[in-house]
UniProtKB/TrEMBL annotation:
Gene Ontology MF: a single term: NADP binding
EC number(s) given by UniProt: 3.5.4.26, 1.1.1.193
Name by which UniProt lists this protein: Riboflavin biosynthesis protein RibD
Keyword NADP: yes
Keyword Transport (UniProt): no
Function field: Converts 2,5-diamino-6-(ribosylamino)-4(3h)-pyrimidinone 5'-phosphate into 5-amino-6-(ribosylamino)-2,4(1h,3h)-pyrimidinedione 5'-phosphate.
Record key words, sorted: Hydrolase, Metal-binding, Multifunctional enzyme, NADP, Oxidoreductase, Riboflavin biosynthesis, Zinc
Annotated NADP(+) binding sites: 153, 169, 195, 199, 222, 296-302
Gene: ribD
Details of cofactor binding: Binds 1 zinc ion.
Cofactor: Zn(2+)
Positions with a binding annotation for Zn(2+): 49, 74, 83
Pfam families for the chain: dCMP_cyt_deam_1 (PF00383), RibD_C (PF01872)
Amino acid sequence: MDIKYMHRALRLAKRGAGYTNPNPLVGAVLVRDDRIIGEGYHEAYGANHAEINAILHATEEVSGADLYVTLEPCSHYGKTPPCAQTILEKGIKRVIVAAEDPNPLVSGRGIAMLRENGVEVITGVLEKESRKLNEIFFKYITTGKPFCILKAAMSLDGKIATRTGDSQWITGECARRQVHLLRHRVACVMTGIGTVLSDDPQLTTRLPDKKGKDAVRVIVDSSARIPLSAKVLNVDSDAPAIVAVTEKAQDKKIRELERMGAKVICMPQTGNGVDLAFLMKKLGEEGLDSVLLEGGSTLNESALRQGIVDKVNFFIGPILIGGDTAKTAVGGRGVASLKDAYRLRNLCTQFFGRGIMIEGYLGTGEEAPCSQD
């Protein structure tokens, strides 16, 4: 029974995707006598937490009820009062928690407060699913660095464009909609100057059934070659553009970009390009908790080599392109030996129309279940 209601809480939590960053996605369900009497989720950054919304939406008195919540109730004052205190005041008798909050300001304190005041607390119900749902939050709150997803669309033989540079469209409409959902979910979309010069993308969120949230557009451009007419600098969006340059950029061009409203960040140089690890640190300091990397083969290789990628989402279209000079998803020199290859763990697949997406995580760590929705 606990699993049934926690699944409902997790589904509710997903409704906040794209609106709560850098806060977590949290859902809550109030139950009495095997009946749901209230439910809610964290709807937006700075708004009520899920537990409070569940209490506010309750159809009857909540005293003596059970509360299912996907993340440990907070015990400190932040944008809102502590949820643990409200739970005590309302007389809720049992709290079932999916995962402990890794935030150092909470981290077990909410659970301890409830137990010390006579509330029965059960933890670890669908914990892996909760951690998967909040993988962005878990990394950002513990490291201060954004969670980075490397996304690429390629043919079955690994090509991201033909030998002439034609790349639209390798995947179908269903896959492209999923990409826009990813943009809606993250804080930043990052691309390289090569992609801007060849494709002139907007990097905005366009969803057919609802208004999506635009992410901050980050352009990695060591020499500030970006044209002032580029769409990423001129789209009608509330989200700003950030141009990451190095000392190779001319002061005049930097001033022109800033006059257009772009934020220019001068980065240390590594090799011939931007120090991406330093850039991720700077983005984290700006309160940006996640990055969707939509670059070309050069930027993708740099991101992997510099160790900033947490997860890959490779969308594969059912076509073959061929060509020795047609670009692959990861360029550069590549590894010299298979033992040095970038290995993925916790692989899963999803179908989008006639295409397929393969998801996997870089590095080592706890296995998390693959989300199928």
